[in-house]
Amino acid sequence: MSLLAIIGEALRALRLNRLRTGLTMLGMIIGVAAVVLMLAIGQGAQTMVNQAISSMGSNLLIVVPGATSSGALRSGSGAVQTLTMSDAQAIASLPSVKATAPLITGTAQLNYGANNWSTVVTGVTPDYFEVREWAAESGALFTEADVRSATRIAMLGQLTARNLFGDEDPTGKMVRIKNSPFLIAGVLAVKGQSLDGRDQDDAVFIPITTGQRQIFGNQFPGTIRFLMAQAESAEMMEEAEAEMNQLLRQRHRVAEGMENDFTVRNMAALTAVATGAAKVMSIMLGAIASVSLLVGGIGIMNIMLVSVTERTREIGIRMAIGANRRAILLQFLLEALVICILGGLAGIAIGIGGAWAVSEAVGMVVVITFGTVVLAFAFASGVGIFFGFYPARKAAALKPVEALRYE
Amino acid sequence: MTPLQNPASNPLIKVESLCKIYSLDSGAAGNGNGNGNGNGNRNGTVNSQVLFDVSLSIHRGEFVAIMGHSGSGKSTLMNILGCLDTPTSGHYWLDGSDIASLSDDELACVRNRNIGFVFQGFNLLKRMTALDNVATPLLYAGVNRSDSRKRAQALLHQTGLGKFAAYQPNQLSGGQQQRVAISRALVNNPQLILADEPTGNLDTQTSREIMEIFQQLNREHGITIVLVTHEDDIAACTGRLIRLQDGRVVHDAEVPA
User: Fold this and answer.
1) Are residues A227 and A339 in the same domain?
2) Overall domain count for chain A
3) Which residues of chain A are within 8 Å of residue B104 when distances are taken between CB atoms?
4) Is residue A244 part of a domain?
5) So what's the pLDDT on residue B190?
6) Are A136 and A170 within one domain?
7) Of A41, A47, A26, nearest to A288 (Cα)?
8) Which of A365, B100, B129, B157 is at 20 to 30 A from B187, Cα to Cα?
9) Is residue A3 less than 8 Å (CB to CB) from chain B?
10) Residue B52: CB partners within 8 Å, gap ≥ 6?
């Protein structure tokens, strides 16, 4: 009997028991849909984390003033201001460090015409944009000369620009920051969420010197809030960390045995943790979803076993008129497989639909890859073959005379 | 290709010293064919012998009736002749081939190509049209769907059921169902038809019609027919009568015309 004819027989048998076929298929549909949906959510989370990581810039080390504990007085990092511009310059000259970006930050009110917007004002040097791999979308970045002469010039983040200017192009316009007029040099490209969930486009950047002298007035001259350093390569992160620690201890005259008055954070470690966590979540969601697929598969086996018993006489008749064991085996195996494949296809469609609904309703990032769909489909077929084989073999192993006599 | 390709000089069916013993769990010994001499043994099974040393030959073109009381072993003999069951001991040559030497798949092929079955309960596939029922053996023989349907339609026409091709078994009368079953038995041009009480579920008039079909097949197409029956007038339509009693052949003679 040709395979095509056997498929025809299998389809006919399934059509005869529409309700049962449908209910069995439902188990498969739910299982596959759950797998597709969970993988989509898991991969969405991974994508979000990866975006946040890549938006941070690569091979970053962050130096913040203060230590987690200092003698009897324990204060959080950043509580004291011990880092200076010259520290940043000194670190930049280390062989393992490509560039450094000192920062000062604060919150200020921005005004343009009738619009106002309160946002984070960050004083930076042009190196900052290089370290963060952040380009101007319109206009041009301010320059080293602007930093030297403490010019009142600003780069707007996308969200700030939209809130103050709407559809207007802000480049070349004047904006007031804490009532001081600033020329807008340009608007930065979209950066998206950071790892801690802040919208990085809700920002404005000015030369660090301008910030020190004019916006955040009462600081010790030359002090900075923290600094970012970019290592030459991913392999040199550890080396850069060690060199920076050594250099800063020396510069800050930290005596032997005393704790650092600064902290160097290796962002690679942080990103590894974040990626790892997202991956674990993804795998766990997939594993939970595959349990329902397993249950669906057992449902198929159950129904196929009932079907074989119910149709014992039919099997006997078929054997009497010339069906060999292979034909009987294939007929029942294909019935299970057809249920799984049709259920799998429907499940994939529903899973994709569900993923879309989730992203629309909750605003969650979901990612459905071709690989996910192929995996779900292969999984469904595998379940069909695995759970269909035992009942099919049972049917094929029947003795013709006994099957015929079965009431 | 069929496993059976032997010169026509041999008898079509030859059995020698055929024995069949069923081993039944003692708890279930009451059903099935367990009417023979029960011999209990220590591990709780009961052996019951249904056929004792049966030997017979049936030649091409014969029309043979097998009679016997219920439990005389005639159905068991039919099942063995039909390659649906295997003897416990003894030999069975069908068309010169030793059936014991054939694999399961080869036996399926023999049932498909060389033997046509007609059962008392018709044994049609439910919820399948008469046409598809008749065409199914051809599908197992590897004939494509449209050719097999054409052939099935022709056979239904021949048995007078041309108009009922699209009907399902439960929409047909007993006589019509049996004609469908005969068409199905004939669809692969078998040399041998085995009919196990084909008229058992039919009224006298219909029985006579069915017997006429068998006689015609035997006479005009030279098909060998072996038929089990309870009824003397059915046996009278055949050419040779074999009587079984308690698993032994007690009578084997031509039926006077």
Assistant:
1) no
2) 2
3) 324-325
4) yes
5) 94
6) yes
7) A41
8) B100
9) no
10) B19, B246, B247, B248
Please report how the helices A325-362 and A267-310 are oriented relative to each other, as an axis angle in degrees rounded to 10. 140
Domain that holds residue A332: 3-52+273-405
Q: Residue A32 falls within a domain, yes or no?
A: yes
Alpha helices per DSSP H over chain B: 74-81, 104-113, 130-140, 145-158, 174-186, 204-221, 232-235
Query: Taking a C-beta distance cutoff of 8 angstroms, is the pair A52, A193 a contact?
Result: yes
Residues A278, A357 within the same domain? yes
- Pairwise CA distance, residues A42 & A19, whole Å: 34
Tell me if B64 is assigned to some domain. Answer: yes
Q: Domain holding B76: CATH number?
A: 3.40.50.300
Of residues B111, B119, B124, nearest to A322 (C-beta):
B111
Answer whether B149 touches A (CB < 8 Å): no
Question: Domain boundary at A216, A251, A286, which?
Answer: A251
User: B80-106, pLDDT tens digit by residue?
Assistant: 999 999 999 999 999 989 999 999 999
Task: Tell me the CB-side half-sphere exposure of residue B120, using CA atoms within 13 A.
Answer: 11
Residue A77 lies in a domain: no
Contact between A142 and A126 under an 8 Å Cβ cutoff? The reply is yes
Q: Residue B248 domain-assigned?
A: yes
Domain boundary among A219, A251, A283: A251
Place of tokens 């008129």: A321
Q: Are residues A222 and A125 in the same domain?
A: yes
Do A95 and A46 share a structural domain? no
Q: What domain range is B175 assigned to? A: 60-86+104-254
The verdict on A243 and A325 lying in the same domain is no
Q: Are A278 and A246 in the same domain?
A: no
| CB-based contact B140 A317, cutoff 8 Å | no
Closest-CA distance of chain B to residue A358, Å: 44
Write the CB contacts of A322 (distance below 8 Å, at least 6 apart in sequence). B108, B109, B111, B112, B113, B137, B140, B141, B188
Q: What pLDDT is recorded for position B79?
A: 93
Q: What is the ipTM of this complex?
A: 0.89
Contact check, Cβ <8 Å, B140/A325: no
A344 domain residue, yes or no:
yes
Place of tokens 């196990």: B196
- With respect to residue B53, please indicate whether it lies within any of the assigned structural domains: no
Contacts of A401 in chain B (CB under 8 A): 79, 84-85
Q: What angle do CA B1, B143, A397 make, to 5 degrees?
A: 75
Same domain, A142 and A216: yes
φ and ψ of A291, to 5 deg: -60, -40
Q: Does B136 touch chain A (CB under 8 A)?
A: yes
d(CA A300, CA A383): 9
Q: pLDDT digit of tens for each residue in chain A (407 aa)?
A: 678 888 888 888 888 889 999 999 999 999 999 999 999 998 888 888 888 777 777 788 988 887 554 455 555 555 566 788 888 889 988 999 988 999 988 888 999 988 889 999 999 999 999 888 888 888 889 999 999 998 999 999 999 999 999 888 899 999 999 888 999 999 999 888 777 778 889 999 999 988 888 888 755 677 888 889 998 888 888 889 899 988 988 888 888 877 788 888 888 777 788 888 888 988 898 888 889 889 989 999 999 999 999 999 999 999 999 999 999 999 999 999 999 999 999 999 999 999 999 999 988 888 999 998 998 889 889 989 999 999 999 999 999 999 998 87
Q: What's the structural domain count of chain B?
A: 1
Asked if residue B34 belongs to a domain, the reply is: no
